[in-house]
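User: tokens in, sequence out, please.
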């Protein structure tokens, strides 16, 4: 059964639906990657239909392996097909490993509307609920030091700046590591 997450609507924001990527997302994925600002920050840009198919295949393989969970973030539209607005990925999830990484991007047409923080929050909550029992205790969010928008998303979602990391290929600049710990387990009351 596929995982379906929701970030509920607010007074000023539409509901977001998060689900695994599928072939129906290919055309919109290509459109999203035409944005030069997005391409500036990603490691593997999508350039064409074949690249988009590889993206979707890699997403399916990650879900099947149980180690990488990539969500398409959609904004439902009443009179049209849902619109792709972002992605959030939970990666490097391994049994017994206490940390994993969260990554994301937002489509140009959805920036500045609180999409990324709401989607990251939904995946963060799901990750801790789903994987805490197998050892997940913290999530890390990494970005280049000059990616101020990603830094704001980290701060808004409770990921605290832990350290500055040296540049590493393919990223030419130093980076930030933000960390968020699992919420404390509920205390059991003895009767």
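Assistant: Sequence out:
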């Amino acid at each position: 059964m596929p995982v379906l997450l929701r970030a509920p609507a607010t007074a000023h924001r539409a509901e977001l639906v998060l689900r695994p990527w599928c072939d129906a997302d290919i055309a919109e994925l290509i459109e999203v990657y035409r944005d030069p600002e997005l391409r500036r920050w990603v490691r593997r840009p999508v350039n064409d239909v074949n690249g988009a198919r590889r993206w979707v295949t890699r997403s399916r393989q990650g879900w099947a392996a149980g180690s990488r969970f990539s969500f398409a973030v959609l904004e439902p539209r009443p009179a049209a097909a849902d619109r792709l607005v972002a992605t959030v990925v939970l990666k490097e999830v391994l049994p017994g490993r206490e940390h994993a990484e969260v990554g994301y991007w937002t489509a140009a047409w959805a920036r500045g509307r609180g999409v990324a923080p709401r989607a990251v929050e939904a995946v963060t909550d799901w990750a801790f609920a789903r994987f805490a029992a197998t050892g997940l205790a913290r999530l890390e969010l990494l970005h280049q030091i000059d990616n101020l928008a990603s830094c704001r998303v980290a701060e808004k979602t409770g990921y605290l700046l832990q350290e500055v990391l040296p540049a590493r290929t393919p990223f030419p600049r130093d980076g930030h590591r933000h960390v968020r710990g699992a919420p404390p387990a509920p205390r059991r009351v003895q009767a």
